[in-house]
């Protein structure tokens, strides 16, 4: 709905206050150059019942704050570096994750997402291709691509709040690794727990490059509460509180701790 | 804030319509909610409540440009050929969203600007031949509502005439929240593969008739256009008319665009 066919390097898009209603597709895509920035605030999207109604693109060096997105595809698209997103409320329909970090191998760094409230989500089936999760990394959408161990995806998410029905919310994270990862999650609350069965389970399988080298999976989670209980290195397992199913080959890459006292995988 | 009241509301030419496209010069108005805003103990001012309905009253279409053809996602026959598989447009959820073309699931919203604490009154009711009748039947309505995100709590009280009043504190970042009545909730269920209308696992509980309140801060200073060596193009309210709204050379004018500023605006398909 917001589009540009020939945007040039260095241009900026400033957008304050609009409400986008009943979008039929992605609401914002600019073509011509990726080296542009946007400043978006008080931005609302409603009635996004159709598939493929993504949230806005977050180009490099963008500042996005105070947004409300009803969305039936990737809500927050982390494809570029140097992006700050603050105070976002997401009402998620069933296609793709809340935060999409995958489907291509990208070098991304300096992404900060703070005060993210997921107020609704409803996934009809457990997926990894279009991940049914809060944070999701899809496998390659285009053929002919290979995992790239020279690239790293780096992001920090703080103050993530997920509300669900009494049955719980979908999984925290599902990634099909395409690059190395360095993800920090600081303060995560699943107010009503995680869904029983597959939908509540976080999944990160082992992926290697053509030479058999494993990708790095640096994941650091602090102060993560599920249904009021603290997730630790003692209860993270796929069949316990955290419902984390990270391939055993990544053991020692990742850790869960609390700011009150750290416990690390050893 | 132009009117000196510490807040500003908008009103539009509304059309209550759960079945079809609205007239081009009108906007879809909530069939269920009315919202008023005031400073504590001041005068109420109505804030127009918009409404979105699944498929926008256009049926199961492939593209917004298919109008007036409908159901272009469904199989059809072209001469001897059967064309077009039945495509999932993302809207079918096991919950019945339409009946005989009439929306059963809706999403309403209202937006106002404010720079002081305000009270927001939310009333539920029904329209009959252009006349609004407020629901008065539910006692203790304020106790039967939740505002999400719940991480930002609000003081909620019953209004004397049947609605609820929410105190929305001044906030430089504004507030955007969902007002959800317990007697209006809808369960989304799955059998593990697809949505089902009964049985299975509950994966979501949402209001049937959603209501969002967007309390916007005033336009920040950096976004106020300053005089300078650029062309300031001001859009008029109403549908965009390319010939007059985009200039005689149309979109070509946008090639020199350095900055696009958008003040509160509604975009609707």
From TrEMBL, chain A:
<protein>
    <recommendedName>
        <fullName>Glycoside hydrolase family 49 C-terminal domain-containing protein</fullName>
    </recommendedName>
</protein>
<dbReference type="InterPro" id="IPR041274">
    <property type="entry name" value="IPU_b_solenoid"/>
</dbReference>
<dbReference type="Pfam" id="PF18783">
    <property type="entry name" value="IPU_b_solenoid"/>
</dbReference>
<dbReference type="Pfam" id="PF18841">
    <property type="entry name" value="B_solenoid_dext"/>
</dbReference>
<dbReference type="InterPro" id="IPR012334">
    <property type="entry name" value="Pectin_lyas_fold"/>
</dbReference>
<dbReference type="InterPro" id="IPR011050">
    <property type="entry name" value="Pectin_lyase_fold/virulence"/>
</dbReference>
<dbReference type="InterPro" id="IPR005192">
    <property type="entry name" value="Glyco_hydro_49_C"/>
</dbReference>
<dbReference type="Pfam" id="PF03718">
    <property type="entry name" value="Glyco_hydro_49"/>
</dbReference>
<feature type="domain" description="Glycoside hydrolase family 49 C-terminal">
    <location>
        <begin position="146"/>
        <end position="256"/>
    </location>
</feature>
<dbReference type="InterPro" id="IPR041402">
    <property type="entry name" value="B_solenoid_dext"/>
</dbReference>
Automatic annotation (TrEMBL), chain B:
<dbReference type="InterPro" id="IPR023226">
    <property type="entry name" value="Glyco_hydro_49_N_dom"/>
</dbReference>
<dbReference type="InterPro" id="IPR035953">
    <property type="entry name" value="Dextranase_N-ter"/>
</dbReference>
<protein>
    <recommendedName>
        <fullName>Glycoside hydrolase family 49 N-terminal domain-containing protein</fullName>
    </recommendedName>
</protein>
<feature type="domain" description="Glycoside hydrolase family 49 N-terminal">
    <location>
        <begin position="5"/>
        <end position="217"/>
    </location>
</feature>
<dbReference type="Pfam" id="PF17433">
    <property type="entry name" value="Glyco_hydro_49N"/>
</dbReference>
């Amino acid at each position: 709905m917001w589009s540009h066919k020939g945007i040039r390097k260095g241009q900026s898009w400033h957008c304050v206050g609009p409400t986008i209603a009943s979008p039929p597709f992605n609401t914002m895509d600019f073509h011509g150059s990726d080296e542009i920035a946007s400043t978006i605030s008080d931005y609302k999207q409603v009635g996004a019942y159709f598939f493929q109604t993504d949230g806005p693109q977050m180009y490099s060096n963008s500042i996005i704050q105070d947004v409300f997105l009803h969305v039936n595809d990737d809500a927050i698209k982390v494809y570029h570096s140097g992006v700050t997103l603050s105070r976002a409320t997401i009402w998620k329909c069933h296609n793709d994750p809340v935060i999409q970090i995958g489907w291509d191998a990208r070098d991304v760094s300096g992404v900060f997402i703070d005060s993210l409230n997921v107020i609704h989500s409803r996934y009809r089936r457990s997926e990894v291709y279009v991940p049914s999760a809060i944070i999701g990394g899809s496998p390659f959408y285009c053929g002919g691509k290979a995992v790239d161990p020279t690239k790293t995806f780096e992001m920090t998410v703080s103050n993530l709040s997920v509300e669900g029905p009494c049955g719980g919310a979908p999984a925290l994270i599902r990634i099909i690794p395409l690059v190395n990862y360095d993800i920090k999650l600081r303060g995560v609350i699943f107010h009503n727990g995680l869904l029983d069965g597959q939908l509540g389970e976080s999944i990160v399988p082992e992926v290697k490059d053509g030479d058999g080298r494993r990708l790095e999976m640096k994941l650091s989670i602090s102060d993560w509460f599920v249904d009021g209980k603290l997730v630790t290195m003692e209860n993270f397992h796929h069949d316990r509180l955290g419902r984390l199913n990270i391939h055993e080959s990544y053991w020692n890459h990742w850790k869960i701790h609390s700011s009150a006292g750290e416990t690390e995988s050893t | 804030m132009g009117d000196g009241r510490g807040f500003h509301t908008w009103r539009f030419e509304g059309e209550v319509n759960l079945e079809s496209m609205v007239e081009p010069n009108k906007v879809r108005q909530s069939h269920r909610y009315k919202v008023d805003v005031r400073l504590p103990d001041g005068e109420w001012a109505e804030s127009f409540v918009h409404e979105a309905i699944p498929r926008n009253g256009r049926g199961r279409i492939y593209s917004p440009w298919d109008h007036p053809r409908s159901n272009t996602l469904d199989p059809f026959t072209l001469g001897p050929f059967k064309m077009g598989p039945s495509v999932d447009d993302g809207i079918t959820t096991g919950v019945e969203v339409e009946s005989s073309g009439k929306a059963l699931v809706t999403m309403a919203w209202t937006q106002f600007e404010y720079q002081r604490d305000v009270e927001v009154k939310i009333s539920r009711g029904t329209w009959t031949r252009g006349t609004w009748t407020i629901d008065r039947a539910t006692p203790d309505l304020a106790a039967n509502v939740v505002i999400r995100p719940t991480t930002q709590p609000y003081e909620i009280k019953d209004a004397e005439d049947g609605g609820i009043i929410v105190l929305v504190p001044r906030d430089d970042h504004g507030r955007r929240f969902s007002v959800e009545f317990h007697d209006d909730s809808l369960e989304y269920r799955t059998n593990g593969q697809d949505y089902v209308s009964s049985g299975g696992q509950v994966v979501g509980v949402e209001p049937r008739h959603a209501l969002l309140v967007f309390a916007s801060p005033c336009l920040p200073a950096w976004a106020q256009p300053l005089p300078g060596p650029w062309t300031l193009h001001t859009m008029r309210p109403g549908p965009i008319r390319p010939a007059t709204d985009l200039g005689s050379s149309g979109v070509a004018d946008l090639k020199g665009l350095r900055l696009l500023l958008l003040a509160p605006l509604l975009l609707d398909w």
